Amino acid sequence: MTKPTTSTWRLTLQRLQRSLRWLRPGLGIKRWIGLILMGTTLMGVGLAMLLLHFYRIAPDAWWLPLVSAASLRPLPRLLRVLVFAALGLFILLGGIIGLNRALLIPFWKPGRDMVETIEAHRRRESGPRIVAIGGGHGLSTLLRGLKAYSHRITAVVTVADDGGSSGRLRRNLGILPPGDIRNCLAALSNDEAMLAQLFQYRFANGGGELDGHSFGNLFITALAEITGSFEEAIAESGRVLAVHGRVLPATLHDVRLVAEIQPPNSTQIVRVEGESRIPRFGGRIQRLWLEPTDPPVFPKVVRALLSADVIVVGPGSLYTSILPNLLVPDLTAAIRASRALKIFICNVATQPGETDGYDCFDHLRVLEEHVGSGLFELVIANNCTEGELPEGVHWVTLSDESVFDVPVYQNNLISPEEPWHHDADKLAAVVMALYQARTGPLAAD
Fold first, then answer.
1. Which residues contact 41 (CB under 8 A, 6 or more apart)?
2. For residue 335, what is the domain's CATH number?
3. pLDDT tens for residues 106-122?
4. Which of 110, 123, 324, 353 has a Cα-to-Cα distance from 9 of 20 to 30 A?
């Protein structure tokens, strides 16, 4: 017989180590193994009592010596216990691992380690409750990074959009604009490779009725017609995209964004209506409000804010993505009432037509002018100004930290590919680090 070589023993040891990874803390497997062991032990005790009964009533039966040999009766009792316990545990673990693989295969992506996948899923399931408020590209970027840390994410988006595909659907069908909601659903999707790309697909200009429309916008609109509820349409879209988390509109009312703008080289103030027209008008925005005023907040948003561990406002267009949410009075009141860590993320670059010439303090000042001071506990700002920006776009800098009433945390947050945007991973890492600095490391479940 060939003796096992060193490489054979090493391979056996590696396989054993891979199997023992199923016992790591946080997977939620050991408790079920314990329950199965308890049930198996009780069944074993019952079988042993049955055999003892037959030994007593039929000591001369022909099959009893076979049972005696199979039970290793010639060995000392303690050694028999250890042999059967080890053999039973080995068979039990093999069965549980095989069962888990069989059940998880439909959801397991090739190339990913199954234990690490389950471990990451369990960690995110017990992650902090995060509410992110904003809209547009900035909010989508933040969500794309945060979903690596938690599945308990709620994105709150504005419904004041009246441009592009969303605006056309809003005017023609009377539906709330689905554009920002679509972007957030795609960002939170568990599979951004195909389904999310399909959701984001925009029909090319060719003279047809679908020109410029996004497939996701049409999908949400169709679901709203079928279900009779815009809220239900969002929820169903989230299921299709395998979204972990949820996206909620700030209000279900049809609101319009209105601004008073001072044009360049003029002392007059002009009233401009429409989220899409405000940044194109040019000039300095003096005041912003919603019409009708005081729209009621979506009740689920209030519940999410009051139960949140972290509330993050921004990044995004200051006047057309962030403020439209905060101008819903009850939403801002819920933020103030919440015991969560409240963070404002300042943009890394200015936006033409909205924040030309603004620094970080100007962003916070505008928010305080519209919704009052004391809303945030921390401000996150970028301190890296390396990279080429598009024409008319400038870095948002931190000119004087002493003018802030709240602490400011600075770090390199820019995307290497598009320096005028945040990097999803860098931004999410900073948010989670600040949260853990306040609460301590997250405990494993």
1. none
2. 3.40.50.10680
3. 556 666 666 666 666 67
4. 110
